[in-house]
Amino acid sequence: MKLVTAVIKPHKWEEVREALETFGVTGMTVSEVSGYGRQKGHTEVYRGAEYDIALVPKIRIEIVIDDGDVDDVVGIVVKAAQTGRIGDGKVWVSSIDSVIRVRTGDRDEAAI
Amino acid sequence: MSSPLLTTLAVAEHNTGDTAWLLASAALVMLMAPGLALFYGGMVRSKSVLNMIMMVFGALAVVSIVWVLVGYSIAFGDDVVGGLFGDPFQYLGFKGMLEDVVSSEGGLPVTAFAIFQGLFAVITCGLVAGAIADRTRFGTWLVFAAIWTILVYAPIAHWIFDFSAGEHVGGWMANKLGALDFAGGTAVEITSGASGLAVALVLGTRIGFGREPMKPHNLTLVMLGAGLLWFGWFGFNAGSALSAGNTAAIVFVNTLMAGCTGCLAWLLVERIRDGHATSFGAASGVVAGLVAITPACGFVTPLGAMVVGAAAGLVCAVAIGWKYKFGYDDSLDVVGVHLVGGLVGTLLIGLLATAKVGSVDGLLYGGGLDQLGKQLVACLATFAYAFVVSGLLALALDRTIGFRVDEEHELSGVDLVIHAETAYDLHAATGGARPHLGGGGHLGGSS
């Protein structure tokens, strides 16, 4: 089992969700997060005073999937979230030891 | 009409129309206090919005009471101590005013005039709070508000607002000097700005001033507050005509015009200097224009008012940057907007006043430099007195009962430390609140 984590631009989130649903991903966890990468935040101006806002709002998506689906899912997320401009985000994959469904106690593949 | 049941000291012939307008205007000026609370509240960080609002509400409560007790008497009693202020005992606790007495302004119940003036003291005090956001002890602020009303506001109001009439001897600025100030460029705007500067210098800069972002947390509150201030300002200015007539109507138009040109002028500066016209700039420009037209509104034409508002918008939009250059933490720009805007408006009377509207011609209407000189003296005297006395008062309070919160409390936020509240519960499920309602687990605290 793998955990796919994607940090993407907020306005791309709906496209990514639709693409994943079409593929058959049945659930995900989504959080509003902030961070920065190479684009290094942005500037805001209040009464003439410039503020360097280091953190940029992002959406983080977390999906637990079977090993066999990893390439497809990562490909779908990257394709849907891509604008080609700086700040599009990152996707990473990590291994998971165990998954338990809280309602039934099912474990691992049965719980996904 | 006088009531036969009341003792009449003067022959009370009330003008009911004027009285109705004055009372309505007083209520409009009162609305400026919560308007200012929202205007300021939106500008601070979310951890101190409640404290900011509370400082303005606290000023409303304290200054109103002090005004009725002794403030009005100091401002509008007969000259004592060489004209520095009015007799504090003459109208102590509104003594001798509750009988059906008409004001020396004519046709108005003196009590209506007195409370209208009292609400000016309230808003002036509230303005000072903007200079010391995020770091002030609430209890000390209330003590400051009370003493400041007596020592700073009431004497200056006496100088410029108390006109001699009959045997009554009024203040030096309005009567001997002959300076013009229709609704408070000196007593309200310059006084609040000079006092704010003094108190901000005594308290010192906030931790992280000039380094950390201290951006406004809610600009919709700022816009709403500016809107309420503008609405209330019609009572402030047009009510100062003390009559529901032609002057009030001209003043009303001038108040609208100056807010409009102030707004556009400030946005123009921002668009050229910063690249964007901002909502915060619009709200600030409206207020700057209104500040500047306050002293001038009864002496200039609507076209003159447009010039006054635009001048304030341009100058104030630049002046708000001075605090970073000179290092004083006037948190919400009371100096940049009210002191500077008040100076602009009070001085422009010397140029733009016309006898077609008021009683005097300024320089541009062939009146020479005479009036401008008088205006300058009034500005300097108001600034010097308010700055020095407010500064000494703040210093005395800081050395005795403490005026500034502890560093740790300032960092964690004054809302939580001083008031045991936070303004926004945006995470209702995970806010971590475990109920101990009313103390000891009893709802409502009953046992």
TrEMBL record, chain A:
Pfam families named in the record: P-II
UniProt-listed Gene3D superfamilies: 3.30.70.120
Sites of O-UMP-tyrosine modification: Y51
UniProt GO molecular function: ATP binding; enzyme regulator activity
GO biological process per UniProt: regulation of nitrogen utilization
One of the record's GO cellular component terms: cytosol
Family note: Belongs to the P(II) protein family.
Subunit record text: Homotrimer.
PANTHER family: NITROGEN REGULATORY PROTEIN P-II, NITROGEN REGULATORY PROTEIN P-II HOMOLOG
Name assigned to this protein: Nitrogen regulatory protein P-II
TrEMBL record, chain B:
Organism: Nocardioides marmoriginsengisoli
Topology in membrane: Multi-pass membrane protein
The protein's name: Ammonium transporter
Transmembrane region(s): 20-40, 52-75, 107-129, 141-161, 181-204, 216-236, 248-269, 276-293, 299-322, 334-355, 375-397
Main location class: membrane
Native organism taxonomy: Bacteria, Bacillati, Actinomycetota, Actinomycetes, Propionibacteriales
GO molecular function: ammonium channel activity
A Pfam match: Ammonium_transp
Subcellular location: Cell membrane; Membrane
Stretches assigned to the Ammonium transporter AmtB-like domain: 20-424
CC per GO annotation: plasma membrane
